[in-house]
Amino acid sequence: MKDLDYHFTSGRSFCLRFEDTPSKDGAQLNITARSAAKAIRAAIVQGFQAISMSWTIDPPKDDRERQDLENAVVEAANANILMFCSARDKGAHNTPTYPSKATGKIFTIGDANSSGASVDYVGDASELSYTFPGDKVEVDSGPTRRTQSEVVDGSSVATALAAGLAALILYCIQVRIFLAKDSEKQKAREAYKKLKQHEGTVKAFDAVETKKESNHKFLKVWEVFGKSVEQKDQKPQGEWLQLVADVGTRLCVKIY
């Protein structure tokens, strides 16, 4: 999934900056609940299909701020926006945090090591929806390669990859709709509509084989996309889009 963002031909991404305040000891910056709620509602207004929320917030002490944040998350869920949030990287003594605390229609993502198992500081793996690479992940500078690559860690990295995978699957289904025969287009459109809902994306993710070491939470995406990449080298360029559509078809197998 390296360079994922640079391979989208028709996708758009937006970054929203939150308000933050220094902690009491000044060692870190904490996101304010009110700015998080505003950002989520801005995503709803803009009609986002997916939100990567690579942050956690402790339940606000102010009841009004807490309720406002919770309402914003629920509003996004009701708008069928796919939401991906980070697990709290604080070890086994994790307490529920926002945004994952607000609704069941949200993916809580933890980071995994190279074996697929969640790393120790993620805490209770049973609270995770899935795990994605987040331990020593190499990130490069993009197509220009003007700066050196760097290694990053944490559930925030894994969360971004999970949201990227969801967007990639939606793209594959869009290609499937574009290439489908008239008799098959309606079925493809129905699959796309279901995929844009939380339950549909769960089924698409569950169509991907998992690693036993991760308690079946780490998706072996290379088994799906890697095979298509190998086939690409054996087919003329005019057939490459069909390979993308075929991936979309395979990932919809549990939706119908």
Automatic annotation (TrEMBL):
<dbReference type="Pfam" id="PF00082">
    <property type="entry name" value="Peptidase_S8"/>
</dbReference>
<dbReference type="GO" id="GO:0004252">
    <property type="term" value="F:serine-type endopeptidase activity"/>
</dbReference>
<protein>
    <recommendedName>
        <fullName>Peptidase S8/S53 domain-containing protein</fullName>
    </recommendedName>
</protein>
<keyword id="KW-1133">Transmembrane helix</keyword>
<feature type="domain" description="Peptidase S8/S53">
    <location>
        <begin position="28"/>
        <end position="170"/>
    </location>
</feature>
<keyword id="KW-0472">Membrane</keyword>
<feature type="transmembrane region" description="Helical">
    <location>
        <begin position="157"/>
        <end position="179"/>
    </location>
</feature>
<keyword id="KW-0812">Transmembrane</keyword>
<dbReference type="InterPro" id="IPR000209">
    <property type="entry name" value="Peptidase_S8/S53_dom"/>
</dbReference>
<dbReference type="InterPro" id="IPR036852">
    <property type="entry name" value="Peptidase_S8/S53_dom_sf"/>
</dbReference>
<dbReference type="GO" id="GO:0006508">
    <property type="term" value="P:proteolysis"/>
</dbReference>
